Amino acid sequence: MIPRHQAVIFSILLLASLVMGVTLWELREHAHRRLIAGQDSAPTSAPQVAAELQATLMVASDSDGSMPAQLHALPLPTDPGARARAILGKLLDIYAAADAAHPVPGGDGSVLEVFLLPAINSGAAADAANGPQLAVVNLAGSFAANHPSGIETETLTVLSICGTLHANLPRVSQVRFLVDGQVRSTLAGHADLTRTYLTGEPVLTEGRQP
């Protein structure tokens, strides 16, 4: 014969077990319904990505000092500054490849930002929306630290960046360089980064420091 108090405790535990079982079953069903609803509302098509556009890269070659143009289809953003950064990233990816004609380590991550501003002393302040532009290219410190030293190789890097910017953004007539957001005297001991570079066709020349 089970004592009365034990029977009461047993009944309470049994009731509690039943309540917990029902609650867990309800929670499981609720979670299942939410999962099904989430699957039903999920998009059926892949999200849109940036459209591929043709970009012109002025790719340097150490063998003869040339910078022949190469055409590449790239997914490019609509913002001009972001587009310029993406294009230069591709250029530096080419230089970082194992078989590069102008080998420079770093790749796409070497270009932190590109800012587009009205050109210096352009006389077109009243037409800032359509006038010539100054591109400020902010390079990563690791890129400058690991760049091969030498006047020719450094100059080819700088001028190919300038030429590539002008080929894709014709309004860019001037280019300046920063490294980690700061002015740096040279790229790797030779190419002057304190001055403004002028873009021109077909030859790029260094501009005077403003």
Q: Can you give me a brief rundown of this structure?
A:
This protein has 210 residues and is α+β, with helices and mostly antiparallel strands. It has 4 helices and 7 strands. 38% of the residues lie in helices and 20% in strands.
Tell me what the structure shows.
Strand 6 and strand 7 form a beta hairpin. The C terminus is likely disordered. 38% of the residues lie in helices and 20% in strands. Helix 2 packs antiparallel against helix 4. The chain is an alpha+beta fold. The chain has two domains: 42 residues; 155 residues, no CATH class. The chain contains four helices and seven strands; from the N terminus they run H-E-E-H-E-E-H-H-E-E-E.
* Secondary-structure element pattern, one letter each: HEEHEEHHEEE
Low-confidence stretches: 205-210
* Strand order of the biggest β-sheet: 3-4-5-6-7
Structural class: alpha+beta
Number of strands: 7
C-alpha-based Rg, rounded: 31 Å
Instruction: Give the percentage of residues in beta strands.
Output: 15-25%
| Overall form | elongated
Helix percent reads: 25-40%
Q: How many domains?
A: 2
Number of helices: 4
| Mean pLDDT across all amino acids | 83
